[in-house]
Amino acid sequence: MAAFRSNVSLDHEEFSESLVQSWEQSFNIRFDKWDFALATTAGDILAVVRQRVEQQGPLVESSLCSTQRLFYRLRRALMATGLPRHTITPQLCLMEVMPLGNRRQQWRLLQRHSEIPLPDLTMPATWYMAVWALVTAGVWPLVPGWGYAVFTGLSAALCIREYSFVQVDFPVTTLGDLAFQLFARSYHKTSGGQMAWAEVRSIVLAGLADCSTEETDVAAAELNEQTQLSF
Question: Are 156 and 135 in contact, with CB atoms under 8 Å apart?
């Protein structure tokens, strides 16, 4: 069992511009500008979220097993593509069952069979850095000054990553991770509008953990209501 952290530092920009918006989308709610202004603990954050969510209707106190239901839908979809049922577990590595050569096609098949909007594949970070470095190195001898070369390399990498043929990197590692990401991204829809506090809480704490700026990775299981937050 993970030990609880008494203090966690968060990225203020990521929290206010990305994480809060993701909660609004997931729970189908809207926050006021100053809702989190006085928040100093994870419990304060949870209290604000709970207040907003309960404006939509009463919360169920017990878990609705939404992540599990999503996993079952993904498993059935993978079985439809030919994977044996006994091999499909939450720990299943997506890279192992979707080789690079036909990954984009298999990702589309998974979306079609599951009838779930899946997150987009992305350009691998190593490819992005390689394009940046190669273009920078190529431009450097032609134009005096390193600034223009670096800017040109970055621009090239940003342009190339928009092409579909380089979008082959998964947003998560395992099938279980994918189920949780889908669950967290649109919980109000996946729960059919009847939301459980235990599941809302898990989404909020997972978001705070991902928003951490600590030197070591923070897990959601390491946070509780008493965890002090600093921005």
Answer: yes
CA separation, residue 112 to residues 66, 86, 116, 217 (Å): 20, 22, 7, 34
**pLDDT tens digits, 193-231:** 788 898 999 999 999 999 999 888 888 889 999 999 998
* Average per-residue pLDDT for the chain: 88
Cα separation, 29 vs 51, whole angstroms:
10
What is the biggest distance separating any 2 CA atoms in the chain, rounded to whole angstroms?
65
Contact (CB, 8 A) for 190 and 182: yes
* DSSP classification of residue 41: B
Phi then psi for residue 80, to 5 deg, are: -65, -25
Long-range Cβ contacts of 173-176 (<8 Å, 24+ apart): 173/93, 173/94, 173/95, 174/90, 174/91, 174/92, 174/93, 174/94, 175/71, 175/74, 175/75, 175/78, 175/88, 175/89, 175/90, 175/91, 175/92, 175/94, 176/71, 176/89, 176/90, 176/91, 176/92
Which among 160, 131, 137 has a CA at the least distance from the CA of 149?
A: 137
Residue 57 pairs in a beta bridge with none
Cα–Cα distance measured from residue 48 to residue 33, given in angstroms and rounded to the nearest whole number: 12
Nearest alpha carbon to residue 197 among 56, 84, 97, 74: 56
The predicted model scores a pTM of 0.76
d(CA 89, CA 83): 11
